[in-house]
Amino acid sequence: MSGLTSLDNVITLVTEIVNLISSQALNKRKFDALLDEINSVYNGLIMYNNVRWLSRENVLQRFVDCSEEIRLFLQNESKIEQYPQLMDIMWLLKLMFFTDICQHFNELNIKLQGQNRQLSS
Q1: Are 46 and 92 in contact (CB under 8 A)?
Q2: pLDDT digits (tens, 9 = 90+) for 73-91
Q3: Nearest to 44 by CA among 1, 86, 73
Q4: From CA 66, how far away is CA 42, in angstroms rounded?
Q5: Rounded distance between C-alpha atoms, residue 3 and residue 7, angstroms
Q6: Rg of the chain over all Cα atoms, to the nearest angstrom
Q7: DSSP state at residue 87
Q8: Coarse DSSP helix, strand, coil percentages of the chain, rounded to the nearest 5 percent
Q9: Cβ atoms of residues 14 and 57 within 8 Å
Q10: How many angstroms separate the first and last alpha carbons of the chain?
Q11: Looking at the predicted structure, is the pLDDT value of residue 10 above 80?
């Protein structure tokens, strides 16, 4: 059961950091400016909606894709010390694993929905 708790801690921390950056207007503008400055292909983070569990993979993938920018932003804001997990290789491995698992679940869900449509036709 500790493995599931560990993965729950991953999404909890990701949600906390995404909310810190995206839900406060000044932080959001600063982060968006940072992404512009480094010519990122992304224009921001995706907020996690607990109601739509399928969004979890999108949130995690964007977080992984922007992890360097997130660390840089938190460092610039003197908040990196609050999130030592971002420098912990084991936590980062759990983040990558959880992201991959969510992606596979989403792909499986899409395939199952397609099969259900074929069966009901």
Answers
A1: no
A2: 999 999 999 999 999 999 9
A3: 73
A4: 8
A5: 6
A6: 16
A7: G
A8: 80, 0, 20
A9: no
A10: 41
A11: yes
Q: What is the pTM of this model?
A: 0.81
Q: Detail the DSSP E strand segments found in 1-121.
A: none
How far is the C-alpha of 67 from the C-alpha of 73, rounded, in Å? Answer: 10
Structure tokens at 35: 């992404």
Quote the tokens at residue 106.
């989403």
Residue count of the chain, please give it.
121
Structure tokens at 73: 């932003």
Q: What distance separates the 2 farthest-apart alpha carbons in the chain?
A: 57
Q: What stretch of H or E contains 85?
A: none
Dist. CA 121–CA 116, nearest whole Å? 9
Sign, CA torsion 61/64/66/71: positive
81, amino acid identity: E
